[in-house]
Protein backbone atom coordinates (compact mmCIF):
# COMPACT_ATOMS: atom_id res chain seq x y z
CA UNK A 1 0.00 0.00 0.00
CA UNK A 2 1.18 3.57 -0.57
CA UNK A 3 0.38 7.00 0.83
CA UNK A 4 0.87 10.29 -1.02
CA UNK A 5 2.67 12.99 0.99
CA UNK A 6 1.83 16.70 0.81
CA UNK A 7 4.91 17.25 -1.37
CA UNK A 8 3.86 14.62 -3.88
CA UNK A 9 6.24 11.93 -2.65
CA UNK A 10 5.01 8.40 -2.17
CA UNK A 11 5.45 6.45 1.04
CA UNK A 12 5.22 2.70 0.60
CA UNK A 13 3.91 0.84 3.64
CA UNK A 14 5.27 -2.67 4.08
CA UNK A 15 3.69 -5.64 5.83
CA UNK A 16 5.17 -4.48 9.18
CA UNK A 17 3.54 -1.06 8.85
CA UNK A 18 6.88 0.67 8.16
CA UNK A 19 6.91 3.59 5.74
CA UNK A 20 9.41 3.70 2.89
CA UNK A 21 9.85 6.82 0.75
CA UNK A 22 9.85 5.79 -2.92
CA UNK A 23 12.93 7.88 -3.78
CA UNK A 24 15.22 6.95 -0.87
CA UNK A 25 17.14 4.29 -2.78
CA UNK A 26 17.85 6.72 -5.62
CA UNK A 27 19.04 9.39 -3.16
CA UNK A 28 21.29 6.88 -1.38
CA UNK A 29 22.85 5.70 -4.64
CA UNK A 30 23.72 9.24 -5.70
CA UNK A 31 25.22 10.19 -2.32
CA UNK A 32 27.12 6.87 -2.19
CA UNK A 33 28.93 7.96 -5.38
CA UNK A 34 30.75 10.68 -3.43
CA UNK A 35 34.38 9.53 -3.06
CA UNK A 36 34.43 10.22 0.71
CA UNK A 37 31.24 8.29 1.47
CA UNK A 38 31.61 4.62 2.32
CA UNK A 39 27.90 4.03 2.87
CA UNK A 40 24.69 5.97 3.42
CA UNK A 41 21.14 5.21 4.51
CA UNK A 42 18.44 7.83 4.13
CA UNK A 43 15.32 7.78 6.29
CA UNK A 44 12.20 9.88 5.99
CA UNK A 45 10.61 11.12 9.20
CA UNK A 46 7.15 12.69 9.33
CA UNK A 47 7.35 16.22 10.70
CA UNK A 48 4.32 18.50 11.20
CA UNK A 49 6.10 21.65 10.02
CA UNK A 50 7.90 20.14 6.99
CA UNK A 51 5.59 17.24 6.00
CA UNK A 52 8.62 14.94 5.95
CA UNK A 53 12.28 15.33 6.76
CA UNK A 54 15.03 13.34 5.07
CA UNK A 55 18.00 12.38 7.22
CA UNK A 56 21.10 10.77 5.73
CA UNK A 57 23.06 8.48 8.04
CA UNK A 58 26.55 8.58 6.54
CA UNK A 59 29.56 6.36 7.12
CA UNK A 60 32.63 8.22 5.88
CA UNK A 61 35.69 6.64 4.33
CA UNK A 62 38.61 6.32 6.76
CA UNK A 63 40.48 9.39 5.51
CA UNK A 64 37.43 11.59 5.01
CA UNK A 65 37.02 15.08 6.44
CA UNK A 66 33.68 15.62 4.69
CA UNK A 67 31.07 17.79 6.42
CA UNK A 68 27.31 18.13 6.19
CA UNK A 69 27.80 21.32 4.20
CA UNK A 70 30.07 19.48 1.75
CA UNK A 71 27.44 16.80 1.19
CA UNK A 72 24.65 19.34 0.82
CA UNK A 73 26.71 21.17 -1.82
CA UNK A 74 27.45 17.86 -3.53
CA UNK A 75 23.72 17.14 -3.75
CA UNK A 76 23.10 20.59 -5.25
CA UNK A 77 25.91 20.10 -7.76
CA UNK A 78 24.48 16.69 -8.69
CA UNK A 79 21.19 18.45 -9.57
CA UNK A 80 19.13 16.94 -6.76
CA UNK A 81 15.72 18.56 -6.54
CA UNK A 82 15.27 20.44 -3.26
CA UNK A 83 12.86 17.84 -1.87
CA UNK A 84 15.48 15.09 -2.35
CA UNK A 85 18.30 16.81 -0.47
CA UNK A 86 18.43 15.48 3.10
CA UNK A 87 17.82 18.19 5.66
CA UNK A 88 20.36 16.59 8.00
CA UNK A 89 23.50 14.57 7.34
CA UNK A 90 24.48 12.61 10.43
CA UNK A 91 27.82 10.84 10.57
CA UNK A 92 28.12 7.50 12.35
CA UNK A 93 30.83 4.86 12.43
CA UNK A 94 28.50 1.89 11.93
CA UNK A 95 24.83 1.07 11.58
CA UNK A 96 22.89 -0.78 14.27
CA UNK A 97 22.68 -4.39 13.08
CA UNK A 98 20.52 -7.39 13.86
CA UNK A 99 22.21 -10.64 14.91
CA UNK A 100 21.67 -11.88 11.34
CA UNK A 101 23.60 -8.89 9.92
CA UNK A 102 20.77 -6.68 8.66
CA UNK A 103 20.61 -2.95 9.34
CA UNK A 104 18.09 -2.09 12.05
CA UNK A 105 16.31 0.68 10.17
CA UNK A 106 13.75 1.11 12.95
CA UNK A 107 16.56 2.12 15.33
CA UNK A 108 17.75 4.69 12.78
CA UNK A 109 14.17 5.95 12.48
CA UNK A 110 13.95 6.31 16.27
CA UNK A 111 17.25 8.22 16.33
CA UNK A 112 16.01 10.40 13.47
CA UNK A 113 12.76 11.22 15.29
CA UNK A 114 14.73 12.12 18.41
CA UNK A 115 17.06 14.30 16.33
CA UNK A 116 14.11 16.14 14.75
CA UNK A 117 12.48 16.68 18.16
CA UNK A 118 15.74 18.07 19.58
CA UNK A 119 16.27 20.40 16.59
CA UNK A 120 12.65 21.68 16.80
CA UNK A 121 12.93 22.51 20.52
Features:
3 helices; single chain; GMP Synthetase, Chain A, domain 3; alpha+beta; 29% strand; three-stranded mixed beta sheet
**Rg result:** 14 Å
Taking all residues together, what is the mean pLDDT?
Answer: 84
CATH homologous superfamily descriptor: ANL, C-terminal domain
Tally of extended strands? 6
First-last Cα distance:
33 Å
CATH architecture classification name: 2-Layer Sandwich
Q: Shape, please?
A: globular
Strand portion:
25-35%
- Specify the helix fraction band: 25-40%
Low-confidence stretches: 1-10
User: CATH class, anyone?
Assistant: Alpha Beta
Organism: Filobacillus milosensis
Domain AMP-binding enzyme C-terminal: 26-102
Protein name: AMP-binding enzyme C-terminal domain-containing protein
Keywords: Ligase
Notes on the protein architecture:
- Residues 26-102 form the AMP-binding enzyme C-terminal domain.
- Belongs to the ATP-dependent AMP-binding enzyme family.
- This protein is an alpha+beta fold.
- The protein is 29% helix and 29% strand.
- The chain has one domain: GMP Synthetase, Chain A, domain 3.
- It is built from three helices and six strands; from the N terminus they run E-E-E-H-E-E-H-E-H.
- The protein has helices at residues 24-32, 68-77, 105-120, and strands at 2-4, 10-13, 19-21, 37-47, 51-60, 88-91.
- The strands form two sheets. The protein has a three-stranded antiparallel beta sheet, with no helix packed on it. A three-stranded mixed beta sheet has the order 4-5-6, sandwiched between helices.
- It starts with a strand and ends with a helix.
